[in-house]
Amino acid sequence: MIVRAFFLGQSVAELATLLNVPPDIIRARMYYGLRALHLALQQTPS
Amino acid sequence: MTSYREWDAAYVLGSLSPDERREYEEHLETCESCARQVAELSGLPAILSTLPQQQAVELLDEPQDMMPTLITAARKSRRWTRIGIAAAVVTAAALGAVLAVVLRPSQPTEAGGVTTQLTQTVPSPVTASVTLVEEPWGTRIDVKCEYGGQPGGRALPYTLFIADSSGALTRVGSWSAGPGTSMTPTATTDVPRGQITRIEIRLATNDRTVLEARF
């Protein structure tokens, strides 16, 4: 989802149509996905 | 009433539509908790952009561990994340500005700035000029992009990047354009006019630079 949004520039609406799920679910997947990435990066010792 | 709680990631990834983005930015002005959420995520696009686009897109077909690359990038940017929430909120505001790209109806691009023609780095039907306008908060970049050929062909996505004097390359906007059309997208950045060293327009499908200007 992150790759599609950030690197392919696909919008929430495009992804909702493409994956046949409501826009709210797309935003939620980005929400949880980006947080998981953020957390994983924070937990890495510097 | 719309719940904006889960809109932050779509916002920082640049995936909201222009209308949704405006709506969310209005909400951010009044909602401290959403503004804080955006601030927390605001460093991630810069870290993600260290991954070459092609490599990232290949992940859709062949998942592999990209964490080592991202961790290296995160370490480099970590000093920024340590500055704290107050600074992060400022960053979020700046990021909002960076993500703000509005497609405007055609209008003269000369508005106190200097217009520069971009040169083609690979042969293509696309020509463009940019006008950099100094603003108190950074720089406004008015792009005029002409796509030759007969109208009716498939539109392709383009991205606008700026390089600054620190060597950092930042994506400041994107749009799509098809044959026989003329576009005037405007991008904004917090980078001062004098620190912009290069502007690139890339074809987003392969991340190849098609036009560039150096300053």
UniProtKB/TrEMBL annotation, chain B:
Membrane spanning residue stretches: 83-103
Domain Putative zinc-finger: 10-35
Signal peptide range: none
A Pfam family it matches: zf-HC2
Keyword Repeat attributed: no
Top-level taxonomic group: Bacteria
Keywords: Membrane, Transcription, Transcription regulation, Transmembrane, Transmembrane helix
Record's protein name: Transmembrane anti-sigma factor
